């Protein structure tokens, strides 16, 4: 049982409309009551839950006014943490909010550790570990799509799916344990055929969850798209077109971009870090050389490459050198400057020479083909075009790792079943799978790892 009371500032420090100090624990109401002077005669200890009260925070030592505030009271167990929670809504700023926190701490309250409010919600059984991790994802969401996935996880979808799979394993284990513990009684044992069929069903459930990871990860974390090409092919113009603003300097002078330029765009719900790089070519200019080296580094890290060529000039040796540095399967060929081509464009020739399958005719000057380019880039990332469908649920690497471990144990169990091994040997692998799935929801995870997960949170959450 948690006996101490914690407090922290739950809003970013700085000037703003409001600043919130959150207090949680058995003495939360009593602690705030000692420094709160309500506008009307009322006792925080007796007010109804989910009510808001106007008044002043007073320093008990010299009875000076600290701030006019609104105090909200949420009683256990129906609060964020499952404990009594009080939130003091101050005027936004640094000094007033910190002063209110200081006065609360003087009443025997402890400063909360990072993520401790959410950790208490987990420890008090209000949420499971996958839901707690979804809180971080909501805070860090870069797009509405990422927010939607995190919201589904917070609502308990991951927990429900994991618990359904765990129950299926438990059902198999129950038959095995009965036959082991009570051999003198006649029970209907599961035949190898039935056990194998049941395991196949469980394996399929886990594989479906795992198949959603890459899509979920992309919507959650985003990708890095690197614009590459030789000098003066229109890379910076392409960056400006995608961002809908003049982010990079554009001139007719080759080598204008000598350093990496980064910015972000929202591509149909996918957070994309778009990187404009220095054109790769042989040069004696020291600064340009450094830029080219940095370009090579970014190409090694790129999730997607937008390989830009100037169709008014065609391909040359510099283009071929760049092709040797990129992953053609994760590249989009941007055939730029089509406005300068008077005759028909031989697209098939470019596809053969570059080895890149996806392409888009484009004019950075006239913005011809911009929407097509964005569609092609999206389809390169999400080939099935399922977006954030029901499958896009697993986005946490920790969850993926434990699902893979569970899957490995289930495959081992099935192999033992088919080879005719005794049921007690099969039970070892099934229990291991059960343990790994329980680690996702926090049911079977050690305290040290749980503490490490919540340490990723900010103080006050």
From TrEMBL:
Mg(2+) binds at residues 236, 257. InterPro entries: G_TrmE (IPR031168), GTP-bd (IPR006073), GTP-bd_TrmE_N (IPR018948), GTPase_MnmE (IPR004520), MnmE_dom2 (IPR027368), MnmE_helical (IPR025867), P-loop_NTPase (IPR027417), Small_GTP-bd (IPR005225). Binds 1 potassium ion per subunit. Its EC number is 3.6.-.-. It comes from the Bacteria. (6S)-5-formyl-5,6,7,8-tetrahydrofolate binds at residues 22, 87, 126, 461. One of its GO terms (biological process) is tRNA methylation. It is found in: Cytoplasm. The keyword Lipid biosynthesis does not apply. Gene3D superfamilies: P-loop containing nucleotide triphosphate hydrolases, Probable tRNA modification gtpase trme, domain 1, tRNA modification GTPase MnmE domain 2. Its cofactor is K(+). SUPFAM superfamilies: P-loop containing nucleoside triphosphate hydrolases. Residues 222-382 form the TrmE-type G domain. Pfam families: MMR_HSR1, MnmE_helical, TrmE_N. PROSITE patterns: G_TRME. It is an enzyme of class 3 (hydrolase). One of its GO terms (cellular component) is cytosol. Keywords: Cytoplasm, GTP-binding, Hydrolase, Magnesium, Metal-binding, Nucleotide-binding, Potassium, tRNA processing. GTP binds at residues 232-237, 251-257, 276-279. Homodimer. Heterotetramer of two MnmE and two MnmG subunits. Belongs to the TRAFAC class TrmE-Era-EngA-EngB-Septin-like GTPase superfamily. TrmE GTPase family. Exhibits a very high intrinsic GTPase hydrolysis rate. Involved in the addition of a carboxymethylaminomethyl (cmnm) group at the wobble position (U34) of certain tRNAs, forming tRNA-cmnm(5)s(2)U34. This is tRNA modification GTPase MnmE.
